[in-house]
Amino acid sequence: MFQNILLAADGSDHSVRAAEHAVRLIADRENAFVTVVYAVDGSTSKYDVLHNKDKIEISIKRKEKLKGVIEILEAANVKYDSKILHGEPGEAIVEFANKNRFDCLVIGSRGLNRLQTMVLGGVSHKVAKGAQCPVMIVK
């Protein structure tokens, strides 16, 4: 089992299921740690700036997207941290994963952007191809 897990999340049902599986992968909850990442691309960032009052409101709304994932980790008494990554999600997640030492990366098979999944092959596919650690894709 794993101790240091990277969990890519975007607030979708698939990312919530990924969080449930991440908790099951943990060998020892006392020493385990999950890093939750939410990647914000340029168009999402632009939308956030145009539709919110300030940076604080943007930050609050982004954290709200991770609420379901965080609730699962807290209910399981898992230590965690959350980070917002900037850039194209697949590339940003791979870069973050490869710069840090994770035992496993867990990601949902689909996220909130279904068009990107159909047209580009999906973030999870890019992550699986580029990450240097084991990747679990959750349906």
Automatic annotation (TrEMBL):
Gene3D superfamilies: HUPs (3.40.50.620). It comes from the Bacteria. InterPro entries: Rossmann-like_a/b/a_fold, Universal_stress_UspA, UspA. It holds the Pfam family Usp. Residues 1-139 form the UspA domain. Belongs to the universal stress protein A family. This is Universal stress protein.
